[in-house]
User: Fold this.
Amino acid sequence: MTRVCVVGSLNMDLVIKAPRLPARGETVTGGEFATFRGGKGANQAVAAARLGAHVAMVGCVGDDLFGRQLLDGLREEGIDIRGVHTDRGAPSGVALITVDPTGHNTIVVAPGANRRVTTADIEAAQGVLAESDVLLMQLEVPVDAVLHAARFAREQGRRVILDPAPAGPLPPELYEHVSLINPNEGEAQRLTGIPVDDDAGVRSAAEALLARGCSAVVIKLGEKGAFVAWGTVREMVEGIRVQAVDTTAAGDAFAGALAVALAEGRDTVAAARFANLVGALSVTRMGAQPSMPTRDEVAARARG
Assistant:
């Protein structure tokens, strides 16, 4: 069975539907409120598990109700949570999310216990990392833990995927350990300083990331698809049009699918096509983890 290890965040998402996203200083009366299990790391772990991978999660929650609910959710998905520790000194992470009628959103995250993930946690999870085909990470946990995990995984000959969100300055060494980096347009621009507002900008940003040492780059372009740069390949993968309900965690669905497809032996372009389909299906439902499609649902959509 394909094995994926996810090092990353776990959050409880507090979601409000609103007629529109508020402007600065404005109060908007919203409608339906719901809580969903989330966090980029946990979302990606659930995405990979529903696509048939054996998934292990490494992270941290608080000793509180949200933490227990987040762990229960991973257990229900069959995810190995031995690498998730409970910290009594910090609350579990929380995300405040507003969603407008078109499915677009604004998100503010209070990281809480996610900031407590350390290199010691990575050391404790080395057995899980060594057993996995792919290591999948984001940047909602401290970057020193991310770098430590990437370094160890590459030493073990494992593939490392980095979803650089939220984007910020990264240690140069980290790029050298990354098999594939998977930013969206805004993240690619923040990482490289190159405006990513047209095809030439997308290509230039991808080249800059390759030059830093990444083996492959897949830039997510929302409904437009994704741009793949790998070896001598430079290819645009077309997007899939759907009626969006909630775009929360679409990028996480994409990243989880990308990890599974690459672990199964697909090349980068084929993996991006598969991830595009999974990401598109996810935006047709509300919530983060609840929106992740199963392998059967993906196969049914692929058949048309």
User: Anything to note?
Assistant: The first strand starts at residue 3 and ends at 7. The chain has one domain: 3-9+40-92+112-302. Residues 3-9+40-92+112-302 form a domain with the UDP-N-acetylmuramoyl-L-alanine:D-glutamate ligase fold (CATH 3.40.1190.20).
